Amino acid sequence: MTNQEGIHFVEFRKSDAGFLFELLLQRSSKENISHKKMPTYEEHIKFIISKPYYKWYIVKKDHDSIGAVYLTQINEIGISLVKRFDNEKIKNEVLELVMKKHPKKRYIVNINPKNKQGINFFKKRGFRLIQYSYEYVKE
User: Fold this and answer.
1) 3, 52, 99, 108 from 30: Cα distances, Å
2) Closest Cα partner for 92 from 106, 103, 77?
3) Residue 135: how many CB atoms within 10 A of its CB?
4) Across residues 102-128, what is the average pLDDT?
5) β-bridge mates for residue 70, sequence order
6) Does the predicted TM-score (pTM) go above 0.85?
7) I need a labelling partner for 65 at 20 to 30 A (CA). Which of 4, 25, 55, 124 fits?
8) pLDDT tens digits, 36-45
9) Residue 30 DSSP symbol
10) CA 58, CA 80: separation in Å to the nearest integer?
């Protein structure tokens, strides 16, 4: 499935692990939601092998890998783009394409509360706040 801008998805393969790790490395702490410290490459591989998502794609623009998008079993969407392609226009195209490819009644995105840009992006597209989550970890 491709849109007019040449954005399309390719099913994730284990050979994409290095690219996904590079995407993870470029994230700022305010973008992270699932980990507090950067996982090792070995931990990253273990995560990938566990097949954590319902659908996982590499986002391509023409022939270049520019990011990744996933959909969980409960319709949570995660989008991660290479910094030079991480703009509202491309992110919106990726969001629209994943929702068109997997039509559901309801979608969820989990965003770090410090990520104001991400919050504003999804709010502008009709997403609304439904919960705050807290955790307690006994040391």
Assistant:
1) 30, 22, 25, 19
2) 77
3) 4
4) 94
5) 56, 78
6) yes
7) 124
8) 678 889 999 9
9) T
10) 10
Strand partners, 57: 11, 69
The CA distance from 69 to 82, in Å, is: 12
Sheet strands (E) in 12-113: 55-61, 64-71, 77-81
Pairwise CA distance, residues 68 & 23, whole Å: 8
User: How many Å apart are CA 63 and CA 49, to the nearest integer?
Assistant: 25
Residue 131 has pLDDT above 70, yes or no: yes
Query: With the CA atoms of 33, 35, 39 and 43 taken in that order, what torsion angle do they form, in degrees rounded to the nearest 10?
Result: -100
Whole-number pLDDT of residue 65:
96
| Tokens 């991660």, located at residue | 80
Describe the strand order of the beta sheet including 77-81 as a list of residue ranges.
7-11, 55-61, 64-71, 77-81
* In contact, 101 and 9? CB cutoff 8 Å: yes
